[in-house]
Design brief:
267 residues, globular, 40% helix, 8 strands, alpha/beta
């Protein structure tokens, strides 16, 4: 089934491939499930079932005007897992998808999930808070939001340049740009405000399943010191795996190593 109807009659697109143990992928901002193409190839070959969800507002999902909170995204994920009747899931969230996964685990009591993989997660806190001065200044994030409101095509191109530590082909960069342009403008702005403002530190206490935190040492978008290291310290069951040759986009910077890690963790 390519779409699942969730609350408010929004149609969420789901790519469901393979028949083995399920790995459910939650994409980053402002992309969609296709960003995991080079994970799907390897994992399907290894006998896994790969389920890629386009979050509402992105890819081939409906793009309603309105709520793009982590609660809303987490509830949509729950509806998909229930509709597909998945059990023993490895939930893999990248960047904003990592924030969605963090909230899902707390809000839905880890339902149907046996392992959690957080990939360059935008979690638990990105920007400064009174008790978290280490966070990024909002002035670093706000130009992305303003760019999405005024020239989203250029913003997506500029954001793409921030993703990788290793050289990527021009064609790869064009493809990444095209994925971002499939999103709705309103969803791009609203969900950026979500990950900018979120504080998921209390959610970490509710995560009890085995958790791997995969994070690039050169990440300029979600610096490892304020995300990966905090997650590893705050989730009792978590282990931090550093990718020394990766920026934010470890899915392409160190594709084979990430794939090996996922095969081992989910197997």
């Amino acid at each position: 089934m390519p779409h699942v109807t969730v609350e408010d009659d929004t149609e969420v697109f789901v790519r469901d491939l393979g028949t083995g143990d399920p790995i459910v992928f939650l994409h980053g901002w402002p992309l969609n499930h296709r960003m995991f193409e080079y994970q799907y190839h390897r994992l399907l070959d290894e006998g896994f079932r790969c389920v890629g969800i386009d979050l509402r507002g992105y890819g081939k999902s409906d793009k309603p005007y309105g709520n793009y909170s982590y609660d809303r995204f987490a509830d949509d994920v729950r509806a998909v897992l229930d509709e597909l009747d998945l059990e023993g899931v490895t939930l893999a969230g990248f960047s904003m998808g990592g924030g969605v996964a963090t909230r899902y685990m707390s809000r839905h009591d880890e339902a149907r999930v046996d392992e959690l993989a957080l990939l360059a997660a935008a979690s638990p806190v990105i920007t400064e808070k009174p008790d978290f001065p280490e966070g990024l200044d909002e002035a670093v994030v706000n130009p992305l939001i303003e760019g999405a409101r005024t020239d989203r095509a250029k913003m997506n191109a500029d954001f793409g340049e921030m993703l990788f530590h290793t050289d990527q082909s021009d064609e790869m960069m064009d493809w990444i740009w095209s994925l971002g342009m499939e999103a709705s403008g309103q969803a791009t702005v609203a969900s950026a405000r979500t990950w900018r403002d979120a504080d998921l530190r209390s959610d970490m206490d509710d995560i009890t399943v085995p958790t791997k935190v995969y994070h690039g040492s050169h990440d300029e978008v979600t610096p490892i010191e304020i995300t990966g290291e905090v997650l590893a310290d705050g989730i009792e069951t978590a282990e931090l795996i550093r990718f020394e040759n990766s920026g934010h986009g470890l899915v392409a910077d160190e594709t084979e190593r990430l794939n090996e890690e996922l095969v081992s963790f989910a197997g």
